[in-house]
Amino acid sequence: MTSKPIPPAGPIEPVNLREALEERYLAYALSTIMGRALPDVRDGLKPVHRRILYAMRELRLDPDQGYKKSARIVGDVIGKFHPHGDQSIYDALVRMAQDFAVRYPLVDGQGNFGNIDGDNAAAMRYTETRMTEVAADLLDGIDEDTVDFRLTFDNETEEPTVLPSNFPNLLANGSSGIAVGMATNIPPHNVDELCQAALHLIKHPGATVEKLVDFIPGPDFPTGGIVVDSREQITEAYRTGRGGFRLRARWSREETGRGGYQIVVTEIPYQVQKAKLIEKIAELLVEKKLPLLADVRDESAEEIRLVLEPKTRAVDPVLLMESLFRTTDLEIKFSLNMNVLSGGQIPNVLNLREVLQQWLEHRVEVLVRRSKHRLDKIEKRLEVLGGYLIAYLNIDEVIRIVRFEDDPKAKLIATFGLSEVQADAILNLRLKSLSRLEEFEIRAEHEKLSAERSDILALLESDDLQWKRIAEEVKATRDRYSKKTDLGRRRTDFAEAPEVTLDLDAALIEKEPVTIILSEKGWVRALKGHQDDLSKLEFKQGDSLKRALKAHTTDKILLYATNGKFYTLEASALPGGRGHGEPVRLMVDIEQNDDFIEAFVYQPGRKLLVASHGGYGFVVPEEECVASTRKGKQVLNVAEGDKARVVVPAAGDQVAVIGDNRKVLVFPLAEVNEMTRGKGVILMRFKDGGIADARVFAKSDGLTWIDGAGRNFTLEWRDLKEWVGARAGAGLMAPRGFPKSNRFGPSFG
């Protein structure tokens, strides 16, 4: 056995490997971008979807016709247009038929096409399909030279490069895809709103994105839900073509009796599989990462119904849902990336206005091409009718020529000056029909077509008439898909997300009234209910009542100490009213030589005036005083040898300060800085002693204190003039009748 000789090698050409790889990779990338991943801005379709719809049309699967097996359609698509895997084509076909995946389905399916749980469709041999009215609108006019065609992969037939698209499909149904180095993700929208925006853009070509958002407030997902982004965020996303939308499930509270309730979820976010969502929630329950939730059940039939049971009836439903929104797919972030093919050639990120504008320009091009196609047919028919009219007027001679002449066509042309088309039309008529031609009918048709020809010529010469016709078509589309119809009604609503502080521990506490008792020696307890009569309270020997606070079990209690720190206690964690309670020092870390000055119920949004004995102080938001640890939170910095002395609500416009020397100074609150931590500014100067007490009040209300007899006494503003001065003054002696304790009285109710 002899081996075949190796043919002589040809000339070897040196190739730069880097350049060769770059060239081939670029060719692959462009092929992926243009032929697979990105939709065309004009019809909103990728090649595979366009080929499926065109193949269905070739099979005459119109909305009013019968169904055919999906396998037949997939086979035609593979054999004629799309030489790829049958499963990928069938998956694309299935998605176009799923009403939970596509806002306006393009395929009408019969059989099992999957469900929102994530179950797959049946095999293509078991399902049947036909086109929907939406698909028919996309293909409307394709036989009238409205779009270009190109050869298929095997050069045996032709396929459209784009569909006429009498429907704003790109924005209506959205699109998603990943290409080489780029991606697209466009949510579905409401066609009624898209048409309104398009009509406004036709009337006002310079309209801004901000104005168009008045008509298109946001996406309209097939599965409903609630978008919780602000209008500003939505507008910015549409203006740039990039951004995202926060989409939440729709839920409601359902009473179960005896004060109990359950949460019922009726709509879940777009592209979230219900079965996997429930599985994830159940998994988090097992891992004890959802402390507010007791159980989850799926009671769905045809409509979605997810039942969420709270841990207790005391759990706030809003807090429960906020915890689920943060940890599960009951809330998703749907990204926006309007990266599409402009003109079928150039990938580009477009904004909302540009997408609508390019679709309308495509519709104008379709209108012009369709009109020219119709004009060509009219002119050919008019030519034929002209021949018929000549034949009728000379019918005897025409019959003679047809019957007796050897070359009747040439004779007709020579005798009557006919064109070849006219001569052929006359010769193709039966003589019997020719003899019965009626001039009236010929002239009527001729006049009708001539008028239509004039209208078309006027349309082709006028941009205004073209845009007027496009506006009429858009209005017709809007009427067909109006919000008044089942298909066209808006499904996704808009709302603002509630601003809540997600405190899971507090959410499990049932809100009940309590009275907090703090003794002089620092013992604390919580009595049930709001107690008014405290005369029967018992304390340890040598101890007495310091503060009694009416609160609720869900409240936080703030303690202010001489070291300038605030300490936080949970009202629900305090010992009960039986006995004397427990020492506060066991609950917080405080030095032995420091003591508590004041206790009060935390109120978010309130501001406090804090001051040291040495005369320094500032205003601080109460939110900045909440401590997260036992060590407390340092707010007022006190110098060595000094101590914190005063904390009062900063509600008013004037500050009254009294010193140990019984001197009083009144000055505007605006002169005191607002800080979160520090020493503050000097409030009042002293030669000896320091600040004894302070009070913030409104000028219109006057200065109030409790006199020696326990009565409320108010000094009007006009009577306070002699004590009014600038901050950091020395003050004057207190008014007659001011308590000898140098205190204004309790500052917190």
In short:
This protein has about 750 residues and is α+β, with helices and mostly antiparallel strands.
How does this model look, in words?
This protein is an alpha+beta fold and 749 residues long. It folds into 4 domains: 31-167, Topoisomerase II, domain 5 (Alpha-Beta Complex); 191-218 and 344-508, Topoisomerase, domain 3; 250-329, Gyrase A, domain 2, CATH 3.30.1360; 509-733, DNA gyrase/topoisomerase IV, subunit A, C-terminal (Neuraminidase, 6 Propeller). It is 32% helix and 23% strand. It contains 19 helices and 35 strands. The chain is elongated and about 145 Å long. The termini are far apart. The mean pLDDT is 90.
Keywords:
749 residues, alpha+beta, Topoisomerase II, domain 5, Topoisomerase, domain 3, Gyrase A, domain 2, 4-stranded antiparallel beta sheet, 19 helices, 35 strands
Superfamily at the CATH H level of the largest domain? DNA gyrase/topoisomerase IV, subunit A, C-terminal
Q: Quick one: biggest sheet?
A: 4 strands, mixed
What does the oligomeric state look like here?
Answer: single chain
Indicate the overall shape: elongated
Strand content: 15-25%
CATH fold-level assignment of the largest domain: Neuraminidase
Helices and strands, with pairings:
Elements: H1 17-37, H2 47-58, E1 68-69, H3 70-81, H4 86-97, E2 107-110, E3 128-131, H5 133-139, E4 149-151, E5 158-160, H6 169-173, E6 175-178, E7 183-186, H7 191-203, H8 209-215, E8 226-227, H9 231-240, E9 242-248, E10 250-257, E11 260-267, H10 274-286, E12 293-298, E13 306-310, H11 317-327, E14 331-337, E15 339-342, E16 346-349, H12 352-393, H13 395-404, H14 408-416, H15 420-427, H16 431-435, H17 439-461, H18 463-480, E17 493-494, H19 504-507, E18 513-519, E19 523-528, E20 545-552, E21 556-561, E22 565-570, E23 582-583, E24 596-601, E25 607-612, E26 616-621, E27 633-634, E28 644-649, E29 654-659, E30 663-668, E31 681-682, E32 691-697, E33 703-706, E34 712-715, E35 732-733
Parallel strand pairs: 8-17
Antiparallel strand pairs: 1-3, 2-3, 4-5, 6-7, 8-9, 9-14, 10-11, 11-13, 12-13, 15-16, 18-19, 18-20, 19-23, 21-22, 21-24, 22-27, 25-26, 25-28, 26-31, 29-30, 29-32, 30-35, 33-34
